[in-house]
Amino acid sequence: MRRVVSLLTLTAALAASAPAAASTIAPGFDNQDSLPACDDCFSAAVMPGFALNFFGTTYSDIYASNNGYVTFSGGQGVYTPVGLGAGYVGLPIIAPFFADVDTRSGLGSTTWGTGSFAGRPAWGTNWLDTGYFSVEGDKRNSFQLILTDRSDVGAGDFDIYFNYGQIQWETGGASGGIGGLGGSSASVGFNAAQGGAAGTFYELPGSLVPGSFIDSGTAPLVRTTNIGVPGRLLFQVRNGSIIVPPPGGVVPEPATWAMLITGFGLVGHALRRRRLQAA
Predict the structure, then answer these.
(1) Rounded to whole angstroms, what are the CA distances from 136 to 101, 180, 207?
(2) What is the pTM of this model?
(3) Which of 150, 179, 244, 257 is the most buried (most CB within 10 A)?
């Protein structure tokens, strides 16, 4: 049985909505490897090709999870998103769409690789055309995480891009969802796993709220942006801290900026156990 984790939610003012546009998912980022068709699996250590200073710890490798996120220091298969706020229990995490992805029976793929993006060397992970637990494919999601090397600014600096092409489901069947909707729905953001220290975590408003992030929802990710490109979010990591832009604004470059996270709100949720399922 999977363990039960109790987490808290952070909310902060961020994204602006804009008219829908063509998919922002960049081609490529599939030249290193992929996960087999699986449920709750994760990769071995992967080398992005540049250093990543994430809240004071510099990493040279990263782990891709089937469940819509990457972690540092090891792999993680937690499947129900119960929050990326102060109460988060787990490894350091960056999550473009933390939810119960299920790619068995050929329902989509999780791939990763190197390339270039925004004129910079980059490493990315694709979650394309993915279904949800348990082996459901009536609704599909496509989203992407890209990390770009910004060592031109400072050692270990990098940018985080969340790109969204299609979000039709928000919840797996073991997370209280019915037909991919409702229950403990998806979470978007990051957490340094430093015991909830102030300024080390962020969760996009709409996380854990059913009906928010899907294409027909109240805050669809395919139309959400903080840099003027619908379906794209940017977070700049400078000197180990992440700069969160104001609503609808573009992140300024000066390294003297501190991490801009406001509007703390905590909501408790608990994971439901899932009975063992045969693959």
Answers:
(1) 9, 8, 22
(2) 0.83
(3) 244
- 8 Å CB contact between 15 and 219: yes
The confidence score (pLDDT) of residue 84 equals 93
CA 106 to each of CA 51, 112, 132, 149, 210: distance values in angstroms, whole numbers, following the listed order: 34, 17, 12, 33, 26
Residue 124 lies in a domain: yes
Q: First vs last Cα of the chain: how many Å apart? A: 14
Q: In what order do the strands lie in the sheet with 201-203?
A: 63-65, 69-71, 93-98, 187-191, 201-203
Q: List pLDDT tens digits, range 200-227.
A: 999 999 999 999 999 999 999 999 999 9
Query: Helix, strand, or coil here: 165?
Result: strand
pLDDT the model gives residue 50: 98
The answer to whether the peptide bond before residue 134 is cis (omega within 30 degrees of 0) is yes
> What is the H or E stretch that residue 268 is in?
strand 268-270
Cβ neighbours for 179, distance < 8 A, ≥ 6 positions apart: 136, 138, 139, 169
As a whole number, the mean pLDDT across the chain is: 84
Report the DSSP pairing between strands 109-117 and 101-102.
unpaired
177: in domain: yes
Q: Determine, yes or no, domain membership for 248.
A: yes
Which structure tokens are listed for 219? 């805050």
Q: Residue 19: give the domain boundaries.
A: 6-270
Strands, E assignment, 60-154: 63-65, 69-71, 93-98, 101-102, 109-117, 120-132, 136-149
Q: pLDDT (tens digit, 9 = 90+) per residue, 120-142? A: 999 999 999 999 999 999 999 99
Is 2 in contact with 79 (CB distance < 8 Å)?
yes
Report if residue 98 sits inside a domain: yes
Q: Could you report the per-residue pLDDT of 249-279, keeping only the tens digit for each?
A: 444 443 323 333 333 222 223 233 333 333 3
